[in-house]
Amino acid sequence: MIEQRRSLDDDLAGLAETERTVAGFVAEGLVPGVVLAWQKDGGPVRYHGVGKLGFESAQPVDEHSIFRIYSQTKPITGIGAMMLIEDGVLTLDQPLADILPAFREMRVLVADGADETRPAARPITIRHLLTHTAGFGMAGMTLNGLYLKHGILPGTSTHVAGPGERPAPRTLVELGERLAALPLAADPGVRFDYSIATDILGLVIQTVSGLPFETFLKQRLFDPLRMIDTTFTIAESQTGRFATLPEKKKDGTWTLADDPHNSHYRAPHYPGGGGGLVSTALDYARFAAMLLNEGELDGVRVLKPETVRLARSNLLPRGVYRVDLPLGQTLSGAGFGAAMSVQLEPGHATGGAFDWPGAVPAGVYGWPGAGGTACWIDPARRFFLLFLTQYWPSWINGTMRPQVIAAAYRDLQPDAVGTKIANTPEMAR
Predict the structure, then answer these.
(1) Which of 75, 160, 395, 407 could form a disulfide with 18 if both were Cys (CB 3.0 to 4.6 A apart)?
(2) Residue 379 is part of which domain span?
(3) What predicted TM-score, i.e. pTM, was given to this entire model?
């Protein structure tokens, strides 16, 4: 029998179809547990949990359960950069080399897989880092072989260096030094390549603020928003609430990709702004609610409204119109803001293995995580929905998130149709 936990006041309606949808995922054995959090029209944040922390666990999931949010870290890093832009110590089109001089003379591969390079046509900027248009790649994607050889991996990667490969860097500074010495896949500002750029953005934040990256986020974002369980390094006291990361093998059996009691998050390589955080529904919902409320939560303002509007606008460089994900998938009708996508026109489910964000109205923004998590924020309808679960590898449940958001908009009817977004002043290049 599936145990469900709800932290809802009796007089508040839930998202009935969405709740049935996620209960079905657990009943089918697709995932051990799911937690939802949502807010509508400035009302209280509501939570719904179904299932357990792991397939072998007896502990129910709830809003205090801790999940690996992987690339849902990116919007947090992006908002950290927007804070420094608001402070006036960064600008969107500032060259990266102003802050990290090692990136001044970048070169570009003439052809994929070749050794020949040429000078980059223009400098890398902060905008390029925010929008994955800097020309960097990522292990498992563009420049995979080159990055593996030089140990450039996500901060919690389990990869063991093979013959001729360097071990992973242990600090953000070391990561930056290695990356600056390697060629780019493309000229900055000419195409979207999902990449290590957000990790370098963490190094930018660290350098400009004068604080370790993780300390900056804690002081400027996590503490003011009371996000008490959002961290790069899991503590012993958190282990009992930490979900397992079940991995499905080719024969259909399950094993553990990450055991909470011996987790890679106990000693990450470095604080990875691209995918290194763990969080809870309670914490991430506070982040989403702050953005939905244009920078303020419970009387504490962390960003000006105009900064939030800029962050959720289309910041892609002129001439870049496609947001391409791994395995040849292009997001439907999407642009890119501060390390998160934004729908410029109503989206649709593409049926791809990384089907994000599926059928959503224009204006919805956010980003998912490789372990199954996602957050959709809809400013026009004053609504956000957070979906937390855990599974690995990331492509095995590709239709799950589109099913969740489609059910949520059916629950919200008749507010389920968007219109194309016109350019606004905050979208200025």
Answers:
(1) 407
(2) 4-75+212-427
(3) 0.93
Angle between helices 73-87 and 197-209 (to 10 degrees): 40
In terms of domains, do 181 and 280 share one?
no
What is d(CA 57, CA 260) in angstroms, rounded to the nearest whole number?
11
CA atoms within 13 A on the CB side of 275: 21
User: Which residue type occupies 108?
Assistant: V
Strands 33-40 and 245-248: unpaired
Confidence of residue 6 (pLDDT cuts 50, 70, 90): very low
pLDDT of residue 349: 83
User: Smallest Cα–Cα separation from 22: which of 10, 38, 12, 36?
Assistant: 36
Using one digit for the tens of pLDDT, what is the confidence trace for 11-40? Answer: 335 899 999 999 999 999 999 999 999 999
pLDDT of the residue at 139: 85
**Within-domain flag for 156:** no
Q: What is the largest CA-CA distance in the chain?
A: 66
SS3 of residue 60 by DSSP: strand
Same domain (yes/no): 259, 402: yes
Q: What is the rounded CA–CA span in Å between residue 348 and residue 257?
A: 31
- Residues in contact with 342: Cβ distance below 8 Å, sequence separation at least 6, in sequence order: 312, 313, 314, 334, 335, 336, 363, 364, 365
Q: What is the pLDDT of residues 336-371, one digit of tens each?
A: 999 999 999 999 888 777 778 888 999 999 999 999
User: Which of 176, 209, 242 corresponds to the end of one domain?
Assistant: 209
What pLDDT does 327 receive? 65
In the DSSP assignment, the letter for residue 52 is B
- Counting Cα atoms < 13 Å in the Cβ hemisphere of 142 gives 24
Q: Do 263 and 407 lie in a common domain?
A: yes
